[in-house]
Amino acid sequence: MNATETFLLAATMSAPAFFDLLGLAAFGAILVAALNGLLGLGKGKVFFDKYAQQSATMGLLLMIVSLLAMVVAGFVAASRMPWLSQWLANPASPFLYFYTTAGLGLLLAIPYVLAWKRMRTAKSVHAILGLAAGLSLTASVVACVAAVFMLGTSTQNDSTAFVVAPLPLAGPSLFWPMALQYAALSLGAGAGLSLVYMVWRRNKDDYGRDYYKFSLPLAAKWAIFGVLLQTLAQGWAYALLTPDARALVMGTGMVCAWGSAALLALLCCALWAVLARSQAPMRMKWIAFVGAALLWVMHSLDITVGLGLLSMI
What SS3 state is found at 61? Predict the structure, then answer.
């Protein structure tokens, strides 16, 4: 595909990328909340706990929305591609690991979020519960990447036979950088969208000027960490490509999509860095919305690149 065709494909992927980004943010927000809850315990600062509560609440809400969207999308996709139903519902499907870890994470996240006030006298137990939920959800992201990786590399996905390609774990496997990419993106998206959530809830959850002066830069720093890490993971993926695969990337529109996604990631981080250094971050709340929009476009391009990479394996 040339550059025009690649960007058109990215545009068609924007809708599924939107809900995929919400799901990643939902899963990552719980881990962000748990880590900040632990920081609050260690440093004794109440603002860490308040931010953790807000990000965890957002994560649970987004989780419900994204899981419903995932179920609907699964039914629609299976009706159009009957062979896909085996991948989604067969007990031997690699997606079973995703269902298990995501379900466990959701079961742990519900009491973690809803029992926040009632567990203030048992903060250590509450923090462990949140960390278990966050790690389980992060594991589910890795499990989903593994399942999609095996689906994309299976050669008989258009037949009635259910044949699963093995997951390459040894040698220069693209699975590891892809797993790191999406695990890191879930963390960055969770923090990045929590900026939007805090601005949106400003009038209802008014914790005072000092809180937002603390929490908005804090969330921006977490977002920078996650998005930079996922960008480095993509560099790792490129380094693992064979010379022929690199030539194919550089000779098609993939290089434009990949380069544009990297530039958008850096632009997001630059905007969040401005917010993180601001003495009046609420006055720069527009960065929260612009950053979220750029993150969506970046993810649409990254999905397009990911599909291209899987087709090379």
Answer: helix
pLDDT of 302? 93
- At 50-85, the pLDDT tens digits run 999 999 999 999 999 988 888 888 888 778 877 777
Taking the C-alpha atoms of residue 308 and residue 253, their distance in angstroms, rounded to an integer, is: 10
Contacts of residue 27, defined as CB under 8 A and 6 or more positions apart, other chains included, come to 59, 63, 102, 105, 137, 138, 140, 141, 186, 190
Evaluate whether 219 touches 51 at the Cβ level (below 8 Å).
Answer: yes
User: Rounded to an integer, what is the distance from CA 131 to the centroid of its chain?
Assistant: 17
Quick one: tokens of 258? 């990949």
Rounded to whole angstroms, what are the CA distances from 201 to 207, 258, 283? 10, 34, 15
What residue type is 50 in one-letter code? Answer: K
In a domain, 189, yes or no: yes
Instruction: Provide the residue count of the chain.
Output: 313
Q: Mapping DSSP to helix (H, G, I), strand (E, B) and coil, where does residue 214 land?
A: helix
In a domain? residue 198: yes
Tokens of 183: 């695990």
What's the rounded Cα separation, in Å, for the pair 230 and 187? 10
Residue with tokens 């996922």: 230
Global pTM reads 0.91
Q: Does residue 263 lie within any of the structural domains?
A: no
How many domains, in total, are found in the chain? 1
What would the DSSP string read from start to end of 168-202?
--SSS-THHHHHHHHHHHHHHHHHHHHHHHHHHTT
Confidence (pLDDT) at 161: 61
Q: With a cut of 60, say whether residue 155 has pLDDT above it.
A: no
Q: Is position 143 within any domain? A: yes
Query: In which domain, by residue range, is 25 found?
Result: 18-235
216 and 195 Cβ atoms separated by less than 8 Å? yes
Report the distance separating Cα 135 and Cα 166, nearest Å.
25
